Known about the structure:
Strand order of the largest sheet of chain C: 1-2-3
Oligomer: heterotrimer
Number of strands of chain C: 8
Number of helices of chain C: 18
Number of domains of chain C: 2
Strand content of chain B: 15-25%
CATH class of the largest domain in chain C: Mainly Alpha
Shape of chain C: globular
Helix content of chain C: 40-55%
Largest interface: B-C, 46 and 61 residues
Order of helices and strands of chain C: EEEHHHHHEEHHHHHHHHHEEEHHHH
Number of strands of chain B: 8
Shape of chain B: elongated
Number of helices of chain B: 6
Structural class of chain C: mainly alpha
Radius of gyration of chain C: 22 Å
Radius of gyration of chain B: 25 Å
Helix content of chain B: 10-25%
CATH superfamily of the largest domain in chain C: Cytochrome-c3 Hydrogenase, chain B
CATH class of the domain at 54-126 in chain B: Alpha Beta
Strand order of the largest sheet of chain B: 1-7-8
Distance between the termini of chain B: 48 Å
CATH topology of the domain at 54-126 in chain B: Alpha-Beta Plaits
Strand content of chain C: 5-15%
CATH architecture of the domain at 54-126 in chain B: 2-Layer Sandwich
Amino acid sequence: MGIIPIPLIIWLIEDLLYLIIFPGLVTILVIVIVIIWLERKIAAKVQMRFGPLWVSKKIGGALQSLADLLRYSFQEVIIPEKADKLAFILAPGLMFAFATIALIFIPVGPYYSVLFPSYYTILFSLALIIITPIFAITVGWASDNKFSFIGALREGFLLISYEVPFLLSVVSMIIIFRTYDYISAVQSQLSFLPGIILNPLAALTMLIVMIRTTGRFPFDITEADSELVLGLYTEYSALFFGVGMATPYVELYNFSLIFSLLFLGGWWPFTLNVMNPIYGLILPGIIVVIKAFIVMAILVFLRAVYPRYRLDQAVRSGWSYVLLLSVLSVILSVGEVVFLR
Amino acid sequence: MSEVRKPRDPVTGHVKALAKGFKYLVEPNRMTLDYPAETMKLPPNYRGFFTVDDKKCIGCSMCEMVCPPEAITMVPRIIGEGGKTIPAPEGEKEAKGPKRTKRPVVNWGKCIFCYFCVDVCPVDAFIPTQVHDLAFEKDSEYRPSYEEYLKPPEEPYKNAKKVVSKADLKRGVGYDPAP
Amino acid sequence: MNEKVYNIDDLQNINVDGEKYIILQIGPSHPGSGHMRIKVWLDGDIIVKVDPDIGFVHRTSEWLSERREWIKAVPIVERIMLPDTVHANLAYVLTVEKLLGIEPPPRAQYLRSLVAEINRITSHLYGIGIFGIFLGSSTVYMWAFGDREPFIDLMEMLTGARITTSYIIPGGVRWDLPNGFKERAETVLQYMERRLKDYEDIWVKNPVVQARTINVGTLKKEDAIALGVVGPNLRASGVYYDTRKHQPYAAYSNIDFEVPTMKNGDSYDRLLIRVEEIKQSIRMIRQILKDIPEGKIVADQIYNQLNPVMKKNYEEKKRVMFPAFMIHMRPPAGEAAAKVEAGRGEIFFYIKSTGDKYPYRFRWVTPSFRNLPYFTHVAVGHRLADLPTIYGSIDYFPPEADR
């Protein structure tokens, strides 16, 4: 027809691939399946046993999570009679969706999506990530179950107490890099030093917040099974449950990507800056995803070491040590900016 | 005991806990048996499924009397050639008359493997085995007939690698290939 | 601890819909309840009242035992106290022996103490493991249950069964020490000593565990005595009482051991006391294996009734078979009582005989049942998340309490 220019079509296809294949949905699925398997394997190794094995014995049971996903898919969907049905059905899906959409604004290479070109990617991604816990609270509310309700309340308490340190830790990096864009943040790290050296306090805060927000141990408080059965997801079954349980891992993936972009130098040591899908997206992307994967592996390892904190202890430390740490990180950033540059 | 209770300061505590976890992550220390690819050869006095020696048994019913869950029933039999028994005629409940005797049958659904019957037998007629991991598909298999009961229990997973457990300083339980 | 004081009488006015307090029914099918229901009234996150509802696994062990021959009660009492089988078995047999007037030979006494201490270690590991999973540490859960395994293998080697050993019979024990037992036991003990250090790093001295347990569920010494708490929980509150020391049975009067006690009586002390008792048990097993005397493993009254086949078996395989006396045992009329220090506390047995082939009255109190008042007394004022801590730290085992 000639009305739509050909470059635009290519861009659209590339964006679609960006969202669906890499580092979008398919990558998320693979990463989630692998990280769940890895989590179980790490725990099993520390606990002197095999872990998942017999589902696919030759590759160490790596298909176990896929088998579990299939099992969830074919389970009966049970919706409690007194549940708020619309919210009950929608909330897990929306939670998953928002966790996934946040990925649009997290570039994994200098060649970034043109569909949503922006100089404010950090802010947008943070905004979307912060939305997801609201649906977690909805999940707990909609189930009409006291255990879910208490789980939702705990989620709310923790959300509020860890949001501020999280934002402050990102703010301190924004101050250092003097940009709201991940790509420029990475570029300035490539030319100077990685963020974790520039501001280790912010990195530490960010790690603690990551553990908390994605419900890793020792902050596995909302799903504490000995107190709350399964917390938020007590009434869920089938695929809803599967989606609900996968969302923290998607969030973990998002957070780990952000962490590797802001603190680990992004696609360092790959420093070529070309606007080409292969050199601009795939190769640096793989580096970033591997870095994120390592961060994820370290965080899931904590399950093998820690029991969980109590709610009041977690909230108290959120408002004291972690907040203090994040404030200090901001001061450090300001100091660096003022004295070093 | 106050020195035991003394709390550790948080930084050392976290570092030590993480270091210990990491040590276990990288060191080979697996304690579990890859059952059923490997199965264990158990010590000779292990109390597994057991059967009875038809010739040795004298039909005294002591095992029936001592059985705590009342899993043993005595079935009437007739002593045939060579000391072996043949089934009593249909409908005969009591072992009365010439060459009549009784033999025990165990209901595996009730048996608790306490081996009181094996130990109380005055002629030591029971033949213990170490087979312990049998599964029954049907309810009727729990209650074998006397002829079925006489067959020695077959071990499942015949192709499995046989191992014997041993105490291991490093991983608690170690496994050696069975002799 | 919350400072607010709740008047329990006010609780009568609670709206049934939980308008004033949230009422949680924890159990009977709940990952943190065991085989019981704990009804909890919550004011926000603070526990106002706890009402443990027991009896879900009542198995009429007393009724069953009163309608069976004496020997048949051995497997029954074992199955009530699955982590503590040997102690239940021993307590029952001690009572019957008092009625019968049989005294087992010294070697049998030592063997009884040996299995009892092996069993105590497995029981404490069981408790530590369950405590671990209640606080969310799957590692400690798996470790503790894994480390029971070497000890259970020892029991299996000696008694022929892993858990439900039925090892102790009136007059003695059923099997003698097999060849190679001592060497294997020594390896296992060394392994356990090394592992206790690992437990210390990852569990006992883990800052998260200390934050969760210190000053949680504190029971003062006077309250512990008034409530009739037994076992490690009593000793954690600072009371020096152990049946093994104060009314020795089996070979305990010949064994040198300490009774560890703590001062504070909080959940952390209850955890520590179990670790300390494991250390003492290791010490005791070493002593028993060193000092064990030679001789018969069954009393002469039983041995003399064995027929030639059984005597041959005894000489060759060191295996005690049952004479017909075991079935037709009729202890003379009278009453007897015995106490045994099990892993979770003191078992008390009372049996009345009328000289019949069944016991006339069969009564026993299990330690978990006596530790139950803990909940109502201790949990009030704590947070909901402290309930599993308290539950796990007192090592409560519902099937044992329900009998």
